[in-house]
Amino acid sequence: MFRAIKRSFIEGTRGMFKNGLMTVTSLFVVTACIFIFGVFLMITFNINHMTSEMAESYQVDVYITRPEDADDNVYENIKARVLDDIRKVDNIDTANISFVDGKEKFKNYKAGLDKEDLKSFEGLPEDLIPDAFAVKLEDISLVDESCSKLSAIEGVEDVENSSDLVEVINGISSAVKTFSVWIIVIFALVSLFIISNTIKLTVHNRRKEINIMKYVGATDSYIKGPFIMEGMLVGIVSALIAFFISQWSYLGLMTSISTTVMVSSFGLLNFNDIWLRLIVSYVILGSIIGAFGSSISVRRYLKV
Amino acid sequence: MITFENVSKIYDNGYGALKGVSFHINKGEFVFLVGSSAAGKSTIIKLMMKEESATGGSIIINDIDVNDLRHKEIPYFRRTLGVVFQDFRLLPNKTVQENVSFAMEIVGASSKEIRRNVPLVLSQVGLSSKAKMYPHQLSGGEQQRVAIARAIVNNPAILIADEPTGNLDPETALEIMAIIEEINKRGTTVVMATHAEKIVNDMKKRVIMVEKGIITRDENEGGYGYVQSN
What we know:
The structure holds two protein chains of two kinds. Chain A is mainly alpha-helical.
């Protein structure tokens, strides 16, 4: 096994150097394809990051009705019942439900206003804002469904959320993801075509040797090994070059955003957070495209 | 060892190369396949090596039903055969020694076995002194010896030779035949397709004559001339 890999590696490397210009062309095109794939991958990583950050800070306020004739005891019972019912609703993060005192909230709100604005609040009752439970959701894409269930709870006056914002973010996120998948597929196919053509040249040059190997009793995998390795090497080298270009571009982008917009990092992920995922994806994509591309080229010479 | 039973072969273009061919070759036999060009000799060789599949009939080689072989099994089947071609088919960028050891590497022989067997086989074909040379530095006869060494290095039970002397002068052809005969004497079955009339007549081996896809003669200690007189 080790001997077969060693042999494939040596002959694959030799094939790569022998093909010279064709290898350089492949490296160039495949690097470009992987880089473009990477741009969309980085955008997807950042969108996912933003969505999850938003989901973490996103909350739904469930306002409690206090009947006019209810004394404190009755009201406490209502609150406890509402809290129980909230906990029973699906998609609610039950560990993250907090009580928001309406009077306190109103007081704090007024504290942030200047004297002019405060005039319009004069004479209004202290309990203008009802008490509420601030609730977090496990999956914010299901916000509408969860809110309608929360609204249906007896004793709930109103449910406040910013579902429009969630819809916009979810929409952008899913559009970018779909677009990324298409871009990845298209550029993977282009790379496949290029690598397959390069390897075809090596295979064609060595068709006599392949023929002799077949007569002597070589298995298909023994013959394919070096060609697949050559394709994989082209893919992996392209992946590494694309990675360094991505790193340079990403860091450059972050620097230019922080200097021009004067907002550090602008909510973008640090390169340190994504480099490992990025390089692993690049190398896997490069190797698969390389192996598959060469496999296509060598197949028809194995029919003897 | 080799049994062809009512074997026919029709190529995709509709050409019927073999029409109900039957013969049996025993272990250790030396058999010449003779006949004019396009008579069906090459098709028989191709069927033996499973390079082509028979359209009808059965082919049993070394107790293996060749028609039933799956694609994955073909390499392992071919390792039981040694093949020599008219055009030698050596790898030009490999030395004599590498051309032979390459056949052993393919079947997964250890480096130790390769180091031990290759010099032995090269001495058997008289090429020990030229182990480090490249094919282009050798004469036609020497190149064919390398091809023979490559064919027998894995100890095949059967040696198939397709016109092995076709590109050689008569004297060199005799040298090659002496080597093949020696291999046969050591127990390897030899099937050789040839046009070399003198060699067939001199060696007095079994002759199977193929004409227009059928066997017209199967004769022990036969000659080539008998055919031409018909």
